[in-house]
Write a structure and sequence with these properties.
single chain, 256 residues, mainly alpha, 8 helices, 85% helix, 0% strand
Length: 256
């Protein structure tokens, strides 16, 4: 299941990365939304790397090459944090006015740095040959704390992304930009799927701590599906929004 889901995500992510990077390069001389264009390309690229790490065959190869257990999982989780943070910066650049833009960007960068700073010592102090950083090893306190820090960040950032995407989709719809509105609407749904992914894994960890976990076999099916759907729909939605902006710019230029 994981190989199929995350392999498909990696393929779609590669296409999205190429399209976003090309758009950022084409528009490099424009000062408007420069941060958004750059962080969109970074976000999709980092996401592609992260989901590639999660493919079981790639994960095993990385751990064999590095000689470090859980190396691929740590890489995938770091990519997920950078991905979510980049998406936040993109949406902030799109949504906030110039007066508060820098402060808003710095605040979100600081939050991502704090999360990574908390995750890395937990990983170093917990990892060994007999432990995997998955819900299957929720009995290990360090694994539970590490995953809750990571999942809490994913839930918070995806919640904000969903809120901002929804607002921007409504504005785009009122302005008559159908493609942008649909893309941002799909991005909002994908962010909610990200929240659902974090809630799925987090709820298992919490109920396991309380002594009444729901069946692990269900969590191991539900969480990868939610993560995969979130990644695929987000990359698709951002690409649609990018195309919509380009079409709107061409229409405006031709009308002028």
């Amino acid at each position: 299941m994981d190989g199929l889901v995350f392999g498909l995500c990696a393929l779609i992510g590669l296409v999205g990365t190429v399209l976003s990077a090309r758009e950022a390069w084409r528009q490099r001389d424009r000062s408007d939304y420069r941060v958004a264009r750059f962080t969109r390309a970074v976000a999709i690229g980092i996401c592609t790397v992260g989901v590639t790490f999660a493919v079981p065959a790639i994960e095993n190869a990385i751990e064999s090459a590095t000689g470090m257990n859980n190396a691929a999982k740590l890489g995938a989780h770091i990519c997920a944090v950078v991905w979510c943070g980049s998406l936040q910066l993109m949406m902030v650049d799109w949504s906030y006015n110039h007066e508060v833009l820098k402060a808003s960007l710095y605040a979100r960068i600081a939050l991502a740095v704090c999360v990574l700073t908390a995750m890395l010592p937990l990983f170093v102090n917990t990892t060994n040959e007999s432990v995997e950083f998955t819900t299957e090893y929720a009995v290990v306190p360090g694994v539970t704390v590490y995953l809750m820090v990571y999942l809490g960040y994913v839930a918070i950032t995806c919640g904000e992304i969903a809120f901002l995407c929804t607002g921007m989709a409504l504005v785009a719809r009122r302005a008559g930009h159908a493609w942008s509105a649909r893309g941002l609407g799909l991005s909002s749904i994908s962010a909610l799927l990200g929240v659902a992914y974090a809630a799925s894994k987090g709820s298992y960890l919490v109920t396991h701590y309380l002594g009444h976990p729901w069946p692990l076999r269900y969590e191991e099916i539900v969480s990868p599906l939610l993560a995969g759907l979130a990644v695929i729909s987000l990359i698709t939605g951002l690409t649609m929004a990018m195309i919509g902006k380009r079409l709107a710019s061409r229409v405006a230029a031709s009308a002028a």
